Each structure stands twice: as C-alpha cells, then as structure tokens.
Amino acid sequence: DQQVKQNSPSLSVQEGRISILNCDYTNSMFDYFLWYKKYPAEGPTFLISISSIKDKNEDGRFTVFLNKSAKHLSLHIVPSQPGDSAVYFCAASANTGNQFYFGTGTSLTVIP
Amino acid sequence: DAGITQSPRHKVTETGTPVTLRCHQTENHRYMYWYRQDPGHGLRLIHYSYGVKDTDKGEVSDGYSVSRSKTEDFLLTLESATSSQTSVYFCAISSLGVSVNTGELFFGEGSRLTVL
C-alpha cells in the first residue's frame, strides 16, 4: 500500500509562473520529508527537505510547505524556469525507521 | 557530486539467468540502498545496508539478495531473473541514515536491466 502519494502524474506551467507540486502521506509516524528532482537517464538529486517541527522551509526559488493535520506537503517553485522541467519525487521517513518512502512522481514541464 | 558508481549501466539478459549489479562508493558512507524505479510505482526500496555485513529488507525484496563485504561496495543479485524484474535500479548512499532527521540520499546514475 502506497504510504506516500503524488496524485498528479504530470503538470505543465508557463515560464515565470508558479509551479505547485503536491504530496500526501498516510503514516502519522513520518516526521521528515524531502523532495527530489530527476532528469531522464540520471539519478534523483536532493532538492529540499522539511522536518515535522516546521511548517515551511525555503531555499531560493523552492519552498516546501507541510500541513501535518492534513498529512499533506507541497513544493512551490517561483518563478518556474524551463530547466525545472523534470520528474519530482517526494519522500518521507520516520525517526524510528531506516527507510525513505517515495511517491510515484510528478512530471513537471515548464513551457518557455 | 557524491562518488557513486553503478555497473553495469545497461544489461539485457534472459529469464532464469543470474544477474549481479554493483554499487561502488568513494564517500565512506555507512548506509547504502538499492531502489528500483518503475512507472506508476516511483522508487521502491529493495534492500539496504547499515554497515559491513549488516543488511535488511525493504518493500520489494522478494527475488533479490544483497551483500556488503566492504564499506565501499554493495552488490544486488537476482538469483534467477524474471521479466517482472525489468526495471531501472538505483543505488543510494547516506552518511547518517534516515533515523536521524537530517539524512539525505545521494543516488547513482542507475542501471537499466531488461529481462527477456
């Protein structure tokens, strides 16, 4: 059973606009969340993370928001650039475990 | 970039044959992981290691075995490959593991396996 879900397989946005990628989780023990970006034929690369003690973490154009009550996190990219076109995975872990659980990914296309 | 090398990068094999994928790291990280990526499933953990000769199962471990005899090498073996094991396999490493909430994974470039 998928514990981390990304319900939008794909998303298209215009260059310069905001991209919002969503992720839901079911395991209330998860307390650390990450976003990874993946280009074709490459391995995923770490983008940004957030601990459950925070509700927002910002790094340049990337901001992750965490809503623990809704078990929901989102990644905002502002402004979106063509180079942001990639597959984005969210991942979650619990302090008591040794595993990251990944979502199915959202393919973002930024249109010039 | 983290020093992670996967080999082979591409392999085509036949059903029933054994296959071994190798992950080599130069970072001296304690934790090593094997994931597979499939459409509609994202990245799923097969096995991981938290030290030399210390391994544990992940979500999809059936049909796979692993070994870690040295810190730098983590081998994934398919004893008898099946078509359902056609996938892209990623090795990942972490210095802290995920039990400490600042760990992140560094991934290799992937190994594409096709089982005919």
Task: Describe the fold and architecture.
The complex is a heterodimer of chains A (112) and B (116). Chain A has no helices and eleven strands. Chain A is mainly beta. In chain A, strands 2, 4, 5, 9, 10 and 11 form a six-stranded mixed β-sheet that branches. In chain A, strands 1-3-8-7-6 form a five-stranded antiparallel β-sheet, with no helix packed on it. In chain A, strand 9 and strand 10 form a beta hairpin. Chain A is globular and about 45 Å long. The termini of chain A are far apart. The model of chain A has no long low-confidence stretch (mean pLDDT 93). With 116 residues, chain B is mostly beta strands. Chain B is built from no helices and eleven strands. The radius of gyration of chain B is 13 Å and the shape is globular. At the A-B interface, strand 4, strand 5, strand 9 and strand 10 of A face strand 5 and strand 10 of B.
Write the layout of secondary structure elements.
The complex is a heterodimer of chains A (112) and B (116).
Chain A: E1 4-5, E2 10-14, E3 19-25, E4 30-38, E5 45-51, E6 56-59, E7 62-67, E8 72-77, E9 86-94, E10 101-102, E11 106-111
Chain B: E1 4-7, E2 10-13, E3 19-25, E4 31-38, E5 42-51, E6 54-57, E7 65-70, E8 73-78, E9 87-94, E10 106-107, E11 111-115
Parallel strand pairs in B: 2-11
Antiparallel strand pairs in B: 1-3, 3-8, 4-5, 4-9, 5-6, 7-8, 9-10, 9-11
